[in-house]
Every structure is written in C-alpha cells, then in structure tokens.
DNA sequence: AGGTTCATGTAACCCGTTACATGATTTC
DNA sequence: GAAATCATGTAACGGGTTACATGAACCT
C-alpha cells in the first residue's frame, strides 16, 4: 500500500482509529523504512505522478509477531484496550488459532482479576461520590463485563472452529 | 492539591487513566499556572520540605465549564470516549443536572447514529474478513451498544432524581 | 480554465514517556 | 544509619496535530 492508500483506509473505516493526517502517516512510513521494517519502491508508470508503494519486510514481519506475542498486562487492559484489539485483529492470520485462544485467555484472566477491584472501589465509595462520578465508574465496570463476556464467547467460537478443522 | 497528591490519586484510583509520572504532572501544572487557570502557593510549614498546593482560579473554572459545554461530536464517540466520561464525571457538579441530561442525550444520539454504520460495514464485509477481524469489529459494536444502554438508563436515573427534587 | 482528487511531503508546536537528579523526612 | 517515602523537578526523545506547500492528473 501507499501512504495515500493508508490515509483512505484510516479515513473511511476508522476502525483502529488511526490518524489519517499526512503529518502522521508519511513520517511514520519513513521511520519504518529507516528501520527496515517496510520497504518502499516507486511504482513505475508512464505518468509523472509518483506513487510509493510499501511492503512489509521479513524483519518487519518478525517485529509484528514479536509485538503480537507480548504478554497481556493489567495496564494493557486499563489503558490500551484498543491496542489489544488491534493485535487480536492481526493475530490468527499471523500466529494461528491456538496462540490466538491463549491471547484471549490472557485478556479474560486480566479482566477477571481487575473487575473485583473496581467493584470493591464502587462499593466502598458509592456513598461519597456524586451521581455522575458513580455512573462513570459503573460505565467502566459494565464495559469490562461486556469485554469479559466477549472474550469468553470468542474463545468458544475458536475452539469450535478448531474442532471443525480436525 | 499538590502535584504529589495528584500523583497518588492517579497511581491508586487509575480511573481517568491519567499518567502518574512526574514528567507529565509537574510540567502540566506549570503550564496551567502560566495560563492562570490554577494558582499555586508554597504551603507554609515549620519544616524545610516544600509543598506547593494548587487551586483552580475563576478563569480556570470558566475554562473547565467551557470544556464541559462543548458539543459531543461523532469523533468524540469514536476516538475520545474516555474524555467524554471524564467530562461527565465533572458535569453535574459544575453545570447541574439538566445540562448533564442534555449531554447524555447528545452522547446517545451520536452512538445511535454511528452504530448502524458499523453494523452495515459488518454485514457487507463479514464474508471476506478473517474470524479475528470480524470478532474485533463485533467487540466494538457490542461496546457501543452497552454504552448506548448505559446512557439511556443514566438519563432515566437523572430524570427520576430531578423529579425527587421537586 | 478551474475545481477536485491523487499523492507526498515539511515545519512549528505540544506533550507524554523514560530516566535521572535532588534533597527532606520518616521508619525500622 | 539505611531504606523507604515525601516532594519537586529537568532533559532527551518520540511522535501526533495542525497547517501549509507542491505538483500531477482528471473532470466538467
């Protein structure tokens, strides 16, 4: 893909919620190129308008799998759920279903460990909190509960898929 | 509060998921002070250890309410839900219940407008997507649905609360 | 001919992370 | 007296935002 292609993807799908600003994309591509994680070639064409197409190198693929394999931390759950979902979206293609299930189990375990803390905090502080603060906290708790349900049902889905393969 | 007090709050409650790093907090307080949104005074004490306590100025309070009053955009929903929750947590104390309900209605409206787009995307692209990608998208959709339910039930709660007051 | 889209880039600015530094006070 | 905690700060680095710039090709 070219930088412009990426811009269009980020601007239209908005899924990973990446920035579609050229000031983010082009410098990022150049950094990746300097680190040899991607390589860009000027597309040959009859026209004068140049278009630089990038592809992932073997080193880049290795870095990607390294990122995907990082253990799930409590901090990932609290502050970087978006990153976890992004890793997940790449995962079964790059690491296979078995490893993906392990990843989902890690997520479920971290959420299951964190939830009681939040509930404990709510239980002890609900009285002194203003309504909006309490609701904001409940919003968070319900979000984590939804995520936990999602992780568990996804694990089941993968296991069914795995059984089908055999 | 002093910078150190803030650090402790951010390190222990982790709710707004602010950074508790001194490299974030102290420069931020100095910036706010330079813009006269907070004012700091060295706490007088018999000890030599200094402790600088900050309080919000009237200009700071005005800036806060200005921030709280900003309209809810689609982009807020997609990329800055955390910010919206933070605003909400401050809101009824600073703007009152009626304005808070309006805020919740804006959030609900934006989510209700965005959800069909996501579902449409899923419906048309589900076939070509890998299982993990599809599930990641479903994760997002379920999250927004949970948020919409939360907003609606919170609105009801506030309206009941308002009726009690009268 | 003029506006839109394709396509890539740069520069100023802001700000968070990481890591280090400094000194006072309390605790064991 | 050593370790932990209180308390504040700075500097290098990375990277995103905003805004601007440039030019080709396409469409009407």
Short description:
With 166 residues, chain A is mainly alpha-helical.
State the oligomer: homodimer
What level of helicity do the residues of chain A show?
Answer: over 70%
How much strand of chain A?
A: 5-15%
Helix-strand string of chain A: HHEEHHHHH
Most extensive interface: pair and counts? A-B, 35 and 35 residues
- Shape designation of chain A: extended
What is the straight-line distance between the termini of chain A? Answer: 36 Å
> Helix/strand-derived class of chain A?
mainly alpha
Please tally the β strands of chain A and state the result: 2
Mean pLDDT of chain A: 91
Tally of individual helices of chain A: 7
Give the tally of structural domains of chain A.
2
Report low-confidence residues of chain A grouped into runs of 5 or more. Answer: none
Biggest sheet details of chain A: 2 strands, antiparallel
Round the Cα radius of gyration of chain A to an integer and report it.
21 Å
- Provide the spatial order of strands within the biggest beta sheet of chain A: 1-2
Outline the structure in words.
Two copies of one chain form a homodimer. The first copy, chain A, is mainly alpha-helical and 166 residues long. The first copy, chain A, has two domains: 3-56; 65-165. The first copy, chain A, contains seven helices and two strands; from the N terminus they run ααββααααα. Chain A has a two-stranded antiparallel ribbon. In chain A, helix 3 packs across helix 5 and helix 5 (81-95) runs antiparallel to helix 6. The radius of gyration of chain A is 21 Å and the shape is extended. Chain A starts with a helix and ends with a helix. The relative contact order of chain A is 0.08. Chain A binds chain B through residues 13-15, 17, 78-79, 85-86, 88-93, 100, 121, 130-133, 135-140, 142-143, 146-147, 150, 154, 157-158, 161, and chain B through 13-15, 17, 78-79, 85-86, 88-93, 100, 121, 130-133, 135-140, 142-143, 146-147, 150, 154, 157-158, 161. Chain A binds a DNA duplex (28 and 28 nucleotides) through helix 1 and helix 2.
């Amino acid at each position: 893909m070219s930088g412009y292609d990426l811009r269009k993807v980020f601007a239209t799908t908005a899924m990973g919620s990446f920035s579609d600003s050229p000031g983010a994309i082009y410098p990022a591509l150049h950094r990746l190129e300097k680190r040899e994680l991607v390589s860009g070639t000027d597309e040959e064409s009859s026209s004068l308008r140049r278009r630089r197409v990038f592809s992932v190198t073997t080193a880049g693929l290795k870095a990607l799998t390294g990122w995907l394999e990082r253990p799930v931390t409590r901090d990932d759950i609290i502050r970087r759920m978006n990153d976890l979902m992004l890793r997940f979206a790449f995962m079964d293609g790059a690491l296979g279903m078995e490893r993906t299930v392990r990843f989902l189990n890690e997520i479920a375990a971290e959420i299951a460990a964190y939830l009681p803390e939040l509930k404990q905090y709510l239980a002890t502080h609900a009285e002194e909190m203003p309504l909006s603060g309490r609701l904001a906290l409940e919003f968070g708790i319900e979000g984590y509960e939804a995520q936990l349900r999602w992780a568990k049902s996804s694990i089941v889905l993968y296991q069914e898929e795995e059984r089908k393969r055999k």
